[in-house]
Hints:
The structure is a single chain. Helices cover 19% and strands 33% of the residues. By secondary structure, the chain is of the alpha+beta class. The protein folds into 2 domains: 4-167, Beta-Lactamase (2-Layer Sandwich), CATH 3.30.450; 169-202, no CATH class. It has a 6-stranded antiparallel sheet with strand order 2-1-5-4-3-6, with helices on both faces. Strands 7-9-8 form a 3-stranded antiparallel sheet, with no helix packed on it. A hairpin with an 8-residue loop joins β4 (112-122) and β5. The relative contact order is 0.19.
Amino acid sequence: xxxxSCRELYRYWDRLRSGLPAPRRTAIEPxxxxxxLADTFILEVxxxxxxxxxxxxxxxxxxxxxxxxxxxxxxxxxxxDRAQVAGLLGAVTGEAAAASLGVSxxxxxxxxxxxxxxxxxxxxxxxxxxxxxxxxAPGELPYWLGLDPVSDxxxxxxxxxxxxxxxxxxxxxxxxxxxVSAFAPERRxxxxxxxxxxxxxx
Length: 202
């Protein structure tokens, strides 16, 4: 997880769960995450593997060029990407895993936008995980964002995280030369580049 919105949402969700697999939906206070609300969404888990938007942030709706409330989340994907995302959603709702995805979005004018997504389980009615808290955030804010809606999402990298076992923000030490993601600040130590975000930041 590299984008600040995804990292902040994960930290907030992790605090709320207080050692349990997932927090309750009623524990989410929009005012607590007001700085990232524009990138966030909540999905309702329905029968037959349906995942409909209950809420969606204004920037997310603007990027996709439409109101997302009530629409099917999986319809944003097609083919193998749809199947892969469905598998990740199954792990989130079935095993209380967190999922992190690198996403590429294609605009109608053949422009492309790199994005990052996080998917986190919530409990609404119990005992299962029947809501998903998520964020989808762009890696940059090009001038055309919101004017040229994106329509096709494809999956780049994927990662499942079990919060009690995995560190979602590892410190990466890589010998130079090194290309650092636009999402992550860097510092240099000798011949290494340090990408910020270890456990000390939690």
